[in-house]
Specification:
- By secondary structure, the chain is α/β, with parallel strands linked by helices.
- The chain has 2 domains: 15-133, ATPase, nucleotide binding domain (Nucleotidyltransferase, domain 5, 2-Layer Sandwich), CATH 3.30.420; 166-348, ATPase, nucleotide binding domain (Nucleotidyltransferase, domain 5, 2-Layer Sandwich).
- The chain is 39% helix and 18% strand.
- It has a 6-stranded mixed β-sheet with strand order 3-2-1-4-6-5. It has a 5-stranded mixed β-sheet with strand order 9-8-7-10-11.
- Helix 1 (51-64) packs across helix 3 (109-122), helix 6 crosses helix 14 (348-360) and helix 10 (270-278) crosses helix 11.
């Protein structure tokens, strides 16, 4: 393993290590204080292997090569619930509150918290650990966009729409504002393994604000995704439960066996589906058609929430690279009138660095729950 590349002496002195622990991989990126990236690493988590074993074998040696050590560690946590709506320093009390949110996003929150505790035990010298939340950008959703039409007793338990991919949607909003200062109504399309849309209002100062989004209480709601179903009739789920399908099987099927994978019966990779569809594979053709149909529906809904739209931005692996989809969207959305189209590379890590350093700056008033 080669030594970690460090920022040049002229860069900002602060080093920030961004950590993204998921259910299938562990990703790291090293940033200077100005947000510039100076190294990225990713290691897959073998099926069934404990995250701590990967951390012992791969992460620990990598961290020991860092000289100097990072001033900050910033963790991406998918679900912040109602309490965590800003970058937050990770105290013992905060971690205890975050544990209660694990059932809301078990594939992501659970591994992130396990890695945080592993780092605290193995590298106690790395004192400053912060978290940024994918739900935080959507804290501005108005009640009509965040509220489910369910009994009051359920709503009082915090059962509402939270939205996800907020870090990248906020980044997309800022990028579009910088490139096109006149744009006020933007639809951000995060299209990758997970997919979501966000209706963004941009003010005269270039500040983006989330007004609506497609994901809800969990990242399962909304668009068709790689292996996630997206929105389906709740009555269908009740029917399956009555037929004897238990909650664990339902969870596994909806999160890991549905979406493009379930529709095609062969793969969740859009590139492979494009090739198979071109060769006449009916399952691949159906998967692409359903994905596109739901995406067009969702964009129309976001345009309604914004009372019109001036720009659409594509981001994420599919959004950035699938030129066929981009052309299909332009054609299918011609009825919206003249639009500015943008392709914005996903950059959650750089956005996290900016958010935390802003929170640490003198005079910052961002909340730090204890």
């Amino acid at each position: 393993m080669s030594a970690l590349p460090l920022p040049p002496e002229s860069a900002a002195p602060q080093l920030v290590l961004v950590v993204n622990a998921g259910s299938s991989s562990l990703k790291l990126s090293l940033h200077a204080g100005d947000g510039a990236c100076h190294g990225q690493w990713q290691c897959p988590l073998p099926p069934g292997a404990p995250l701590e074993a990967l951390a012992d074998d791969w992460l620990a040696p990598l961290l020991r090569q860092l000289d100097p050590q990072p001033d900050l560690l910033v963790h991406r946590i998918v679900h912040g619930g109602e309490a965590f709506t800003a970058p937050t320093a990770l105290s013992a009390a905060v971690l205890e509150r975050l544990e209660a949110l694990v059932p809301l996003a078990p594939l992501h929150n659970g591994p992130a918290l396990r890695l945080i505790r592993w780092l605290q035990a193995r590298f106690p010298n790395l004192q400053q650990q912060w978290a940024c939340f994918d739900t935080a950008f959507h804290a501005t959703l108005p009640p009509e966009a965040s509220t489910y039409a369910i009994p009051a007793a359920w709503r009082q338990q915090g059962l509402r729409r939270y939205g996800f991919h907020g870090l990248n949607h906020e980044h997309v909003g800022r990028e579009v504002a910088a490139q096109a200062p006149a744009v006020r109504r933007l639809i951000s399309c995060h299209l990758g393994a997970g997919c979501s849309l966000c209706a963004i209002a941009i003010d005269a100062h270039g500040q983006p604000c989330s007004l609506d989004t497609t994901m809800g209480f969990t990242p399962l709601e909304g668009l068709v995704m790689a292996s996630r179903s997206g929105s389906i009739d709740p009555g269908l789920l009740l029917h399956l439960l009555r037929c004897g399908v238990d909650a664990a099987d339902l969870d596994n099927a909806l999160n890991r066996q549905s979406g493009l994978l379930g529709l095609s019966g062969r793969t969740a990779d859009m590139r492979e589906l494009r090739s198979a569809a071109k060769a006449g594979d009916a399952g691949a053709q159906l998967a692409i058609a359903v994905f596109r149909h739901r995406l067009l529906q969702g964009i129309g809904a976001m345009a309604a929430s914004l009372c019109g739209v001036e720009a659409i931005a594509l981001s994420g692996g599919i959004g950035e690279h699938d030129q066929t989809l981009a052309a299909e969207l332009r054609e299918g959305l011609a009825w919206l009138g003249p639009l500015q189209w943008f392709t914005v590379a996903a950059a959650e890590e750089a956005q996290m660095v900016r958010l935390v350093l802003a929170a640490l700056s003198p005079g910052a008033s961002m909340p730090r729950p204890e």
